[in-house]
Every structure is written in structure tokens, then in C-alpha cells.
Design a protein that fits this description.
Oligomer: single chain
Strand order of the largest sheet: 1-2-3-4-5-6
Shape: globular
Order of helices and strands: HHEEEHEHEEHHHHHHHH
Number of strands: 6
Helix content: 40-55%
Distance between the termini: 24 Å
Length: about 250
């Protein structure tokens, strides 16, 4: 049987995921498979990539009944910015986890507070929980949540919590929405943020595409936008025999 383009991607990924050589994408793939599509599913949970949280961008956020952020510290990363990152994340997400290589686990434990979860991607490519994260929606900051959202998402949350959004010129809209948002209850804001983001950032339409791609490309398909009209072409391309692909111009 001839090798396909997809087989080549999977072979390359097998090399990348060897402990000591891993980069962030290997960790993203592990979280996508073992947590998003393992513990949950694309029909019941959503995932956000590079989601703004204060002055930082969260690597991955999984939304199911709550919002859980995963900060990745691979073998190639340092822990210099970690303390500041988790403090920003705690203002937006109820659960904060750091997933790290075995070489970083002790450093992470000594850097982050006890309410932050610590996970490890082992040399055998298994995720283990070193310390559980606390689920604490009461600590989120409505103003920080607001700055992370699109205007339409913030408006939906305000209306869902029984507030009236005044009709103002676009030049004043951001300031008015922010003023309304900062008076909201943190726990209610977090619950509505999860509900709204699961709807606006829904990944269920990608289920069919993801199922047809090699495992090594599934995390990429969940984070890099591909036009719906191009899905079939992408699947056909990765299924193409390598010999035929070598003749592509």
C-alpha cells in the first residue's frame, strides 16, 4: 500500500513528539485529543486558541460547563513569564492549568499559586494531573472578561443578565458597554461568557473535517480557519499517494 501525504504528516509528528524535542504544537495536539475530544467532544465543548486575557494570550481554553485555560510550557519554553500569565488568566477563567514537560513540573509548582492546576505530558505522551485546579468563577474580573470579548458577545451577556443596552453612537458604545459590564456579578458573568462563547466559537461544524484528517493535523484544523468550500479539497490532498504528490507543480 502506497504512503499518503497524511502518512508523511503522521510520521513527522511521531518525530516531533519525542520528549526533549517537543514544541507547543505537540502539547496542543495532546490536549485536543485527550481532553477536548477524549474527555469531552466537539459537540459538547468548544476550544479557543490564543484567546486574549488581560495583557496575555491564553494558549488554549476549553469550554464545557466552565472555562478552563491551559498554559503550555514545553521543553523549549522558559517559565519567566508564567507568574504574570496565570494572574491574568485568573481574572477571566474559572480554572487555570499549566501543562508542562517533566523537566518543568517542579519549577511550575514553585512558581504558581496553589489554586492553579499543574499537569504533565510524560515521555510516553500521556497527560497526568500533578495538582487539580480549583474551579473559582467568583474571582474573575468582569472588566477583564469584557476586554476579552467581541462587542456582540459582551452585548449578549449584558442582555442575558437582565440589563438594557442603551442605543448610543458607535463612538461611545465600547465605553457604555464596559460601564455596564463592570457592575455585573462575576459568577454570573463567567457562566454567561461560557454559554455565549460555546455558541459563537462552536467547533461542531468542523467535526466531519477533523474525523477525515490524519491525527497529526487535527489540532491544526481546530485552530486554523479553513473555508467550508475547501474542506473536501483538503481531505483529498492529504489522502493523495505520496508518489502522485511528488509530481504536483
Amino acid at each position: 500500500m502506497q504512503a499518503s501525504i497524511g502518512d508523511v504528516f503522521d510520521a513527522a509528528f511521531d518525530t516531533l513528539k519525542v520528549a526533549g524535542k517537543r514544541d507547543e504544537y505537540v502539547y496542543r495536539t495532546a490536549i485536543s485529543h485527550k481532553i477536548l475530544m477524549g474527555t469531552h467532544s466537539l459537540r459538547t465543548a468548544s476550544m479557543l486558541n490564543e484567546f486574549r486575557a488581560g495583557s496575555c494570550k491564553a494558549d488554549l481554553v476549553v469550554l464545557n460547563g466552565t472555562a478552563t485555560v491551559y498554559e503550555i510550557k514545553s521543553e523549549r519554553d522558559s517559565l519567566v513569564r508564567l507568574a504574570n500569565q496565570v494572574e491574568n488568566y485568573k481574572r477571566v477563567f474559572a480554572k487555570v492549568n499549566v501543562i508542562a514537560s517533566e523537566s518543568h513540573v517542579n519549577g511550575v509548582l514553585s512558581t504558581v499559586p496553589s489554586d492553579v492546576g499543574v499537569m504533565c505530558l510524560s515521555k510516553r505522551y500521556q497527560i497526568s494531573t500533578v495538582r487539580e485546579a480549583l474551579d473559582s468563577p467568583e474571582r474573575v474580573c468582569p472588566a477583564s472578561v469584557f476586554e476579552s470579548l467581541r462587542a456582540a458577545e459582551a452585548t449578549s451577556i449584558i442582555k442575558a443578565l437582565g440589563r438594557t443596552v442603551p442605543d448610543v453612537p458607535n463612538t461611545r458604545r465600547h465605553a457604555v458597554l464596559r460601564e455596564l459590564f463592570i457592575d455585573l456579578d462575576p459568577v454570573s458573568v463567567h457562566a454567561e461568557m461560557v454559554r455565549v462563547l460555546k455558541r459563537t466559537r462552536n467547533l461542531a461544524p468542523l467535526s466531519e473535517l477533523v474525523e477525515q484528517l490524519p491525527q497529526s493535523l487535527q489540532a491544526a484544523a481546530l485552530s486554523i480557519p479553513v473555508r467550508r468550500t475547501d474542506h473536501d479539497r483538503l481531505v483529498e490532498a492529504v489522502r493523495s499517494p505520496l508518489d502522485a504528490a511528488m509530481a504536483w507543480s
